[in-house]
Design goal:
Helix content: 10-25%
Radius of gyration: 23 Å
Largest sheet: 8 strands, mixed
Order of helices and strands: EEEEEEEEEEHEHEEHEHHEHEE
Strand order of the largest sheet: 16-15-14-13-12-11-10-17
Structural class: alpha+beta
Strand content: 25-35%
Number of strands: 17
Oligomer: single chain
Distance between the termini: 35 Å
Low-confidence stretches: 1-6
Number of helices: 6
């Protein structure tokens, strides 16, 4: 009885680095699953590229790179990664940061959700600026989302955006998805207060919206607690311009997954750009 051969996937491995003293290329090495593949890689003073000649088998792998700078200092980094055949994964696409005319956008909550569904989204949430509306109005949006939810086909979610600005503490903007209540007081409730309040909404998750100096960096991504970290699950990272902010978020201890949302204020929900959030 033969054994079915496990095929794999072709991929390209890249790394970038820099050092003021330079890199001693001849003293660098790369190992894949413990095997030295340095001679198969292209190594320069600022980058490394390795393209395996054969597809990597599905499953777990380990990659180790060692660099030596011009002064003789060594740095070794090992990362683990997996290659999947996607047989146990499904890809879903949608958006969780969008506005309508019920705050400062266009159209209605129902319009936005139906538009997203009609244009092929798998999930979608309207997230109005919370200081524009009341708990009663938010309850109505929740009711609409529930009525448009299609289990197994389309997840109609609900949420809101806490929009701190330079008049009330320049924290930044933050989405809360899936909460029962809304916090509208941007002047009386600061970021530490909101983190504490979030504990009363165990089914809700938070997202750091478009982080950076332009809209606020959340006090340098401060006020971390294990409780806040458990529910602040997402960060809106809209392209390479946000890479530094994402790195800073992670370095401060936040375990947040990147998302890409359009932050729509026009009636073009999920189709304003080629990019939206993907979930595996």
């Amino acid at each position: 009885m033969g054994t079915r051969k496990r095929m794999g996937a072709f991929l390209v491995i890249r790394a970038s680095y820099t050092d003021v003293s330079g890199i001693r290329i001849k003293d660098c090495y790369l190992k894949l699953d413990g095997k030295d593949v340095t001679n198969e890689a292209t190594i320069t003073a600022t980058s490394l590229v390795y393209e395996p000649k054969k597809p990597l088998e599905f499953g777990d792998h380990t990659l180790t790179i060692r660099l030596k700078d011009g002064l003789g200092n060594r740095t070794t980094r090992t990362v683990e990664f997996s290659v999947s055949d996607m047989s146990e994964l499904s890809a879903y696409f949608g958006e969780i940061h969008a506005h309508t005319g019920e705050s400062d956008g266009n159209g209605l909550c129902r319009d936005a959700i139906e538009f997203a569904y009609d244009n092929g989204a798998d999930f979608f949430s309207v997230t109005e600026h919370s200081h524009y509306f009341t708990q009663k109005e938010y309850d109505e949006q929740k009711r609409i989302a529930k009525s448009l939810d299609r289990p197994g086909r389309f997840a109609a979610l609900n949420g809101w955006e806490m929009t701190w600005n330079n008049t009330c503490g320049y924290w930044g903007h933050m989405n809360i998805i899936g909460s029962e209540k809304v916090v509208s007081d941007i002047h009386g409730v600061g970021m530490p207060d909101l983190f504490k309040w979030l504990e009363s909404e165990p089914n809700a998750v938070g997202m750091f919206n478009h982080p950076g100096q332009g809209w606020g960096d959340f006090e340098d991504y401060g006020f971390w607690t294990p409780e806040a970290d458990r529910q602040m699950a997402l960060a809106e990272i809209k392209g390479r311009g946000y890479d530094r902010q994402y790195a800073l978020l992670l370095s401060r201890g936040w375990h947040v997954a990147p998302t890409f949302n359009e932050d729509n204020h026009a009636p073009n929900w999920t189709v304003a750009s080629p990019y939206i959030t993907g979930v595996l």
